[in-house]
Amino acid sequence: MELLPLVILIAGIFILRGYNLRIRRLEKRVQGLQNALAGRVLMADAGESVRMTEPAIAAAAGPAAAIQEPPTEAAIKEPTAAGIEEPAVAARNIPDALTDGTLTDDGPDIAAREAPQPRESLESTIGARWAVWVGGIALALGGIFMVKYSIESGLLSPGVRLVLAAIFGLILVAAGEIIRRRSAPVLGNAFQNAMIPGVLTAAGVVALFGSTYAAHGIYGFIGPAMAFVLLGLISLATLALSLHHGQALAGLGLLASMVTPALIASTAPQPWVLFGYLVLTWLATLLASRLRRWLITPSFANALLSLWPMLYVAYSEVVDFTPVTLSMLAMIGGTIFIWPGRYLAATAAKAADGMGTETAADPMQLASTGGWGAFLARPPLGMTLTASIGALAVSLHLLTYSLQSGYPIVDAMFMFAAIVAAVAAFGAGRIHAGWAAILSAVVAVVGVSGVLTNWIAGVEPKSADGIVTMQSMVLYEALGLGGIFVLVGAFFLRRFAEGEKPFAALWSLIMAATPLAIATISFINFGNWTFDWLHGLYGIGLGIVLMALAEWQHRRSSEGLNLPTNILAAGSFGAMVFALHMFAHDAAPTILLPVLGIAYVSAARLRDWPVLPWTMVAALIITMTRIAWQPTIVDPSELGTTPVFNMLLAGYGIPAALAALAAFTVRHSPSVRLRNTLQALASFLVLLTIAILVRHAMNGGVLNDTVPTLGEQSIYTLLAIGASATLMALDLSAASPVFRYGSMALGTLSVILILTLHLLGLNPFITGESTGRIPLFNLLLLGYLLPAIAYGGLALYARNRRPLPYVSMLAVAGAVMALSWATLSVRRLWQGEYIPFWNGFIQGELYSYSVVWLLIGIALLGLGARFEARSLRIASAALVFIAVVKAFLIDMANLEGFLRALSFIGLGAVLIGIGLFYQKILTRKKTTG
Length: 929
Hints:
Blueprint: H1 4-25, H2 27-38, E1 40-42, E2 49-51, H3 54-61, H4 81-92, H5 94-99, H6 106-112, H7 122-153, H8 158-182, H9 196-217, H10 224-245, H11 247-263, H12 271-292, H13 296-315, H14 321-337, H15 344-353, H16 381-405, H17 409-429, H18 434-454, H19 464-496, H20 501-526, H21 533-556, H22 563-583, H23 587-603, H24 611-629, H25 636-639, H26 647-665, H27 672-698, H28 710-733, H29 737-761, H30 764-767, H31 779-798, H32 804-831, H33 843-866, H34 870-894, H35 898-928
Antiparallel strand pairs: 1-2
Helix pairs in contact: 1-7, 1-9, 1-11, 2-6, 7-8, 7-9, 8-9, 9-10, 9-11, 10-11, 10-12, 11-12, 11-13, 12-13, 12-14, 13-14, 13-16, 14-16, 14-17, 16-17, 16-18, 17-18, 17-19, 18-19, 18-20, 19-20, 19-21, 20-21, 20-22, 21-22, 22-23, 22-24, 23-24, 23-26, 24-26, 24-27, 26-27, 27-28, 27-29, 28-29, ...
């Protein structure tokens, strides 16, 4: 314990050293500012200050002045004591000149024009600066070693030793004050930042603090109460002396003050006394910082004051949250109103954003021109972060302790909400407290989530009524905290919305998202999933309030595109969606969500807020999410088997119809993205509605994930082809990239479907599926001939309207489907209802394939010539080539007798006919050319 003063001394020296480095960096600027304020310049060849007359200053500034009047006797007169002390004090408080708004406009310019001082030599650094620090350490160590020697030698009693140590400390403090008062002017002292008075005072404070603590902790000469009072008085006196000696001594005094309660042992700790003392010490530090415009020391004070509640809660057997909460509220309140308060509002905006523009409503309110994130870096960033993070960390610590140790959760939740609300008010009341706004919202959501998820497991009330009452109180507190964010956000918008647009947008997002997130967490944990009055009314109230604030902000703003207004309107929609889910379940939300979206789209006729039509997009996306979660819309047992007229028609059809209505409503909107998005969603929902109704009808009134049959898949393919034609027609009437590319995407998708499913996966030749008993009107008609006709019609409609490769793809797809229908129909004619490949082939069947393929080739050749479709002529040539290969490879090996001869005769005749046909065409083209 005897080495404790030494430890405190070394810690204080390191703190002083850090502040001294900062003072050294700012020394040159301070000298220039003092020259501007006092009207003196430091002559290069003299060791005294010479006051320049106004003509001399003007002559020095003007380019034509060549002669300077000689200085008068009054000008070289020795400065008075008051003239010496004022610059010295100003130099010791460097942040004043940098942050105070009372400087004249030309002061900083004069300082900027000062010539740079030569770099200080190593000799002067060691001799004039380090010697002072080492001397201060030596003085303190000398006192400690003297006391140690007297103890070991038994020369003096403990009481005499402590008295001598205290006297030694007082002598050092007095010496520091005397030297300070008699010190030379700062402009004549190149080594002012060596801080000889401050070092002596710090050494004396350490000696006083150590002797007082030794009298209590080592020898027991004084009781805890007396030691507490004496140590506190020493700490406060140190803070008072720091007004003359700078931030370093203030930091030492603050550290001593905050450590004092830990050094005084008490069998019955009194939290009210403890936190009252800590807040009083913190307040004294804050007042001193306000007088001297300090920023580092109060940040240090915030961190230490925030550390004590967590130590108290962690190491106390009986905990009282009330003094802890009040201490944090006092810290936030002092930060808002005392220091930095409103002082740095203008300076912070100028420092971080550049030039500020004063508004008529509030001279402290400045326009932010430094970008969207500039307000987050405004000074005093250290004070903002330490106060906000410290208070919020304490609030979370209170909740954690309550959940783990059984502290009344209702009280803990109330105090948590009070601290978070205070930090939120800090973020809304000061334009340099952007991090306070963000962190308070995050901690509010995190804390409420932790409490509502975990608290009930550790609480065992005496009755069920106790559970209900406690649960209701916690929910009210959580929801109330969300409402507070709306109130403080509205306060910020009223004061700063016009000049702080990025910050206002952030607050609009916070006041919309935070209460909605809290309400969602509350509902998930304790809501009634069938019908919830509490959360439903909360959502409706929040939606109305946010929309009213959006209207109010719109009327106050002169801009057409006001981001806070649109964010608030979007938040209102989110709250209404939340309320809708509280009062409706099953199919109702899926059907009513697009209705809510249409209401906001209709509101866009009254207010041209860009976000209002986009709410319909959000409503449709949420609707499709619900459909993906429950494709049957209602419970599958309640769906029924009636085709078309069932809940699927309402659950899919109403959103599709409203989506189409919304797309029609915004068809003249200047937003191309909005129009395209709604058109795409409407098209998709219409197709999805038809497809799901087909699926339901084709599977006997049951929706499942089984593989579709060829008949069902054929309907989907026909739907895709029809939708492609419909979108093409819409694009021709009202040009839209959604319709243009959507039509081609659907056409391509349908081609992929026939290649993978119609021809391979679901082909009755491969699967063995029944083709039906009726010869012509059977599965082959639906699966192949109708798609072939549809592709032919789509290709004809797309001709000269769509790219040639796309049209050719459709034409070839139609030809392939027609060939497949004819080929499979031939097989059905010979094989019957079932045509699987494992049944083998008949000679007449093989010959029929050649005849049909050649006829189809001739037909394609004729169509290609009629419509001048090169793709059809190529398809004809390919088909004829296949027939030739078949004749020579298959027919020659498998056919016999008359059928073999007839096959080759027919093939030869067709090939000769095709040759004559092409010769006629070529001759006609040559004659025309």
